[in-house]
Description:
alpha/beta; Rossmann fold; five-stranded parallel beta sheet
Amino acid sequence: xxxxxxxxxxxxxxxxxxxxxxxxxxxxxxxxxxxxxxxxxxxxxxxxxxxxxxxxxxxxxxxxxxxxxxxxxxxxxxxxxxxxxxxxxxxxxxxxxxxxxxxxxxxxxxxxxxxxxxxxxxxxxxxx
Length: 128
């Protein structure tokens, strides 16, 4: 399994050229692509602010997104919630990023993300 940051999830399913070749290869080489539950919330927040544009209603897009045979919704567990507040080192305060990173750490799998802050953090393997 590999976990996708919210932007990587959208770019993967929309086949965006913004997704790096390494990210595409990592997705192709995994049978499960984990999507943290917080990414659903983040997507619902970004669309009305016009920070992300989808070709259909966001709720329909979401339903279709989880029909992909590799996509697996990863619930927000109490362990993930606690871990997100106890990340080692210096990690920024974005709650969505903290929960996505905690999901990767708990599942012991790499994260696909373009986020420079996460990549520089150094406590998690990040593919980009």
